[in-house]
Specification:
By secondary structure, the chain is an alpha+beta fold. The chain has eleven helices and 17 strands. It has three domains: about 90 residues, Rossmann fold; about 60 residues, Dna Ligase, domain 1 (2-Layer Sandwich); about 170 residues, 2-Layer Sandwich (D-amino Acid Aminotransferase, Chain A, domain 1). Helices cover about 30% and strands about 30% of the residues. The structure holds adenosine monophosphate. The site of adenosine monophosphate has 13 residues, from strand 14.
């Protein structure tokens, strides 16, 4: 079986995972619970969070065609936990097995300009934006959009990396240099009331489920806390869900998609970015929902019916970044705290080491 649609795979089958971080790890754990095995493939797979819980690991480059073919032939379907896996890698793998989400989804999600164009073409709002390939482009964009902007690298930015804030008096050349002088996008700065995200899962048959909109609080550009559900008006939550479903459908996604949005003071929903994989703002689903976002991914790529998104409790998820993880003895002693650690040896600053979920009475 090759190409796009996942075959219906019975328990016992092996899922190939591109990317070896904590998202792959938690997907592999959800797969194992349902009786599936995981084979992880990544240049940095050795000893990785995902390899620690997988039946097999291949350490090889994204451009190693022979290793990719061997990997593809040794698994029953492939998925990914990192949306920046090169499109050519996925296209090559697709000659031998099903890979979802597919190259069309990745090419949109890897490039902020493509992503915003795609979303706007669906009639969905974003902050005003302009592509910028030079300091002059940045200056022109700021003149058009207004003095408060954010310049982001078009590709490979995450957790606030590859971003520069622009305000009154910022030298556009300095801002452009700050993101490394690469292709960028200038976005108008949104004074949001809050940030929300919606995670949807979609099967090869077009069936779709959505978790409730959650509220995300960031610290230093990194997700700090997720509150589930978001404390927003029901119409706002419904609009956020509609937007996420619409995007997943338009992408013809098979897998899981997270859409991050800003909510303005007057309740407008603006898309910030999306990720076609399990997302940090969905970790609470492991402890509070009938089926987690990771289980949904396993189900989608194995051609199984999607699971229930029913929320059995409200939840507050707090990330453990860098040395936060050293608080594990205290967190393990806290009744009701559900601690998840990712098996990373070194607690470097800014590194996601784990998270803790606290359940609250269902609203
Ligand atoms: P991103 O990597 O695009 O998700 O950006 C990381 C965080 O920076 C977001 O979650 C926001 O808190 C903030 N941010 C990004 N873009 C904007 C914007 N256009 N206006 C205001 N805040 C932003």
């Amino acid at each position: 079986m090759s190409g796009s649609l996942p075959p219906r795979l019975a328990p016992g089958a092996t899922i190939g995972m591109l990317g070896a971080g904590q998202l792959g790890r938690m997907t592999a754990m959800a797969a194992a619970r349902l009786g599936y095995q995981t084979h992880v493939y990544a240049p940095d797979a050795a000893g990785s969070p995902c390899a620690q819980v997988s039946a097999a690991a291949t350490v090889a480059g994204w451009d190693d065609l022979a290793a990719l073919e061997r990997f593809a032939r040794s698994v029953d379907a492939v998925t990914l936990e990192w949306e920046n896996v090169p499109v050519a890698t996925v296209e090559h793998l697709r000659r031998f097995t099903s890979v979802n989400p597919g190259p069309n989804v990745l090419s949109v999600a890897q490039d902020r300009v493509k992503e915003k164009s795609f979303v706007n073409a669906l009639g969905i709002a974003t902050a005003p934006w302009r592509a910028a390939k030079s300091a002059e482009d940045v200056a022109r964009a700021v003149a058009e959009i207004g003095p408060r902007c954010v310049l982001k690298s078009t590709r490979l930015g995450y957790d606030g990396k590859g971003q520069a804030r622009i305000g009154e008096g910022t030298d556009p050349a300095e801002a452009w240099a700050a993101i490394g002088g690469v292709d960028g996008i200038v976005e108008g700065f949104v004074t949001f009331a809050c940030e929300v995200s919606v995670i949807v899962a979609r099967g090869g048959d077009g069936a779709m489920v959505a978790y409730p909109a959650v509220e995300n609080r960031h610290k230093d550009g990194i997700l700090d806390v997720t509150l589930a559900p978001a404390r927003v008006a029901p119409e706002t939550a419904a609009e956020a869900e509609r937007v996420a479903r619409r995007i997943a459908e338009a992408l013809d996604l098979v897998g899981v998609l997270a859409v991050e949005m800003f909510v303005t003071a007057d309740g407008a929903v603006l898309v910030n970015e999306m990720a076609p994989r399990p997302h940090n703002s969905g970790h609470w689903t492991m402890d509070a929902c009938a089926a987690s976002q990771f289980e949904q991914l396993v189900r989608a790529v194995c051609g199984l019916p999607l699971g229930s998104v029913e929320r059995q409790a409200d939840a507050e998820m707090t990330n453990l970044i860098g040395e936060d993880a050293l608080r594990w003895p205290e967190l393990m002693a806290e009744p009701g705290a559900r601690l998840h650690l990712y098996g990373k040896a070194e607690a470097r600053p800014g590194r996601k080491m784990g998270h803790v979920t606290r359940l609250l009475p269902r609203t």
